Amino acid sequence: MEQLIQRSLSEEILDKTMMLFWEKGYFNTSIDDVTTVTGFNRAAIYKYFGGKDQLFLAMLQRFRKNVTDVVTVPLQTKTNGLKGMRDFFNQFLELYESKGLKSRGCFLISTAVDVHAHNKDVAAFIKDFLDDLRALFQNLLVYTRDEGMLKQGVDIGSVTDFLVGNLFGLMTLCRSSAPRQVFENHIGGIDNFISGLSAK
Amino acid sequence: MEQLIQRSLSEEILDKTMMLFWEKGYFNTSIDDVTTVTGFNRAAIYKYFGGKDQLFLAMLQRFRKNVTDVVTVPLQTKTNGLKGMRDFFNQFLELYESKGLKSRGCFLISTAVDVHAHNKDVAAFIKDFLDDLRALFQNLLVYTRDEGMLKQGVDIGSVTDFLVGNLFGLMTLCRSSAPRQVFENHIGGIDNFISGLSAK
Question: Do B172 and A169 lie within an 8 Å CB cutoff?
């Protein structure tokens, strides 16, 4: 049984479980799907993971640590300024195929879009994620303004929300059947917008 | 039984069923949920609606006819030009509470985001919807350009995709727990963007 616990915690199995929920979402993933991926039976999943809800939350946390925290690196250093925001969005062009963004999008944003159907723990986790995301954009914009590099009259709160809305758009668009070109043009539009925030 | 069929087709019951799928999506809506809303038992649903899949597709069609085709009115007359696009997006400020956009978004876009998990009929329906949506934006932009009212150098295909991406963002953002202000600021950003397409 010890061996089973070890296996339950293996990175590979956890990654496969995360991918399953990422792709299919909470409501379209059954415990049977999880048993197929992990090789456990139902009783083992309930015993070692604590049930579907706790497993789902653990996979959200795993995604945030292993995916989101890596992808947001360009936003994490405020001195990156507007370039950090452009790098953040433009990296998705490369991640689209290579990291399977296509048809998957962002696990946290997909969950945010269904958040009313989730429990309080998931709702609180998603709220933290969205608050932190806003703060990242805002920090870069405040730095840019303080350095005198932001165009006069730009409202930082409004721009932050516009970028959050665009990230929702981008991450949901790539789950749809819209061709890659639409996704590229959306990123191009965001890139133009951010460039346009620069003081001349 | 005739009476039952009549009742099955009543607008009220169809609307309630549509709302159910709109709010909860295909995968989080069970046949039990539908029986609760419609008052039918399972057998009646299978007999008169043909099963969950056909019922879902019928509700998507109903949404397109009764909701989407009404909401896109400002986009349907190409002579509305850029103003038509601004009116289209700005109307969501009013619809947010009054028509329950909040926490529901757009049934068709929510389905588009999960389209890989749906059957061919749903996928084809969603593709048509997205193609038609693109065409609406494009027609207005082409008219605006032909009238000499579009800023030089604007690429119509790119702008169309950017607007589609923003509509995905807006319609998914309002299903999340992000406050109304974020939604308003996203619309404000879209409005600024469209205004900026105008020839001086």
Answer: yes
